[in-house]
């Protein structure tokens, strides 16, 4: 075999930090590249109102994905630590069968009570069942990708993500252009989401069952249920934190166009959250390995590098955002430009909260994880209720920022005082320099909004700094 082929195989199957990071970051780069180039197409083909309808649809899909799967995938990390290697494939197929049983029961209940559910969701019967279909497919995909992450199979995770995203965009464009009535074009995007999620979900589900060959298992279900059930509330609370602002904007303002503008900016800034997700998928398996080996000095060093990397990425994103927004969206969306720094700070707090939460997951503290996230979700709903009627979409973004700050604070406190197995190894002062740097960059965004050359110059300097830093340390972390 040639050295070139050997090198390619090593890249595809390697489990080093840099090799995993390559695929975990390449995926979001490609996916967001696809999204970047299709956003101007979709915003112009759909308009703000259709865009708002699709945003509400995807919100309900995210909620139902959590409920239908009952978050059995959230126990995969614990299984890697506490279940023997030879049993893990059987464990995966068994707990996925648990998700299937629950999903079938929920689908039956929805069919029985379809009229009141349809009225509450403000979608017709077909859309409700499409929500269920996409939710189940998306859950199976998420289950499989979690398995890939914790088995350090980043290339498979990358492949699945690219296939689902690219086919979704292609189907959506074809379907939208085939719909004559402008006000009905949201159906094209919805069905374009459903087809690849269901198809890929079925393929991955069959593969997991074929490999594990295990359905009901009292042993595995008993291990899974106490861990996964609290995660339903944890993840629903995360959805509330991320999505309740859109639903409350619709209810309190009755302005679908405002929801569309807010959703566009939210989705645009979400790019940095996707990058965080890719980095976290690389970081967590390595972090858990170091924790098991007691290598706390390595954890401290790599954490410092990780925080520096993501802080600079967030700062650079804010500095370059205004011109990118204008390129990729029509002028009716530009009124949401002022929300960019507020949402960027919100996502930075999500990044910071991952440090205590990853620590809590390591010690299987899913109940206290859920409590902390539920508290932040309550803060979000209350803040939205009071701020949206006064400040509209800006009030919604500020409410989200406040709740994400509280999310980090809650979990930082919980990790310190509620995990008895060990002493939490992150001090608050570890995160202070990054918080200050991101906050100052947010202020610079507003002060230099009309000075693009200055902002882009600062962005280039930050890019060179972090690139030189990574070259010197020969690692992304």
What would you note in describing this structure?
This protein is mostly helical and 477 residues long. The chain is 84% helix and 0% strand. It has 15 helices and no strands. The protein has helices at residues 3-13, 17-69, 76-82, 88-112, 114-121, 125-150, 154-177, 186-212, 218-253, 256-293, 296-328, 340-362, 366-417, 432-447, 452-473. Helix 4 packs antiparallel against helix 6 (125-150) and helix 12 packs antiparallel against helix 14 (432-447). It is globular, with a radius of gyration of 22 Å. The protein starts with a helix and ends with a helix.
List keywords for this structure.
mainly alpha; 15 helices; 84% helix; 0% strand; globular
| Proportion of residues in helical segments | over 70%
Secondary-structure content class = mainly alpha
How much strand?
A: under 5%
Largest sheet: none
User: Mean pLDDT, as a whole number?
Assistant: 85
Number of helices: 15
Label the overall shape. globular
**Number of beta-strand segments:** 0
- Give the topology string: H per helix, E per strand: HHHHHHHHHHHHHHH
Residue runs with pLDDT of under 50 for 5 or more positions: 1-8
Report the C-alpha radius of gyration, rounded: 22 Å
Distance linking N and C termini? 32 Å
Overview in brief:
This protein is mainly alpha-helical and 477 residues long. The chain has helices at 3-13, 17-69, 76-82, 88-112, 114-121, 125-150, 154-177, 186-212, 218-253, 256-293, 296-328, 340-362, 366-417, 432-447, 452-473.
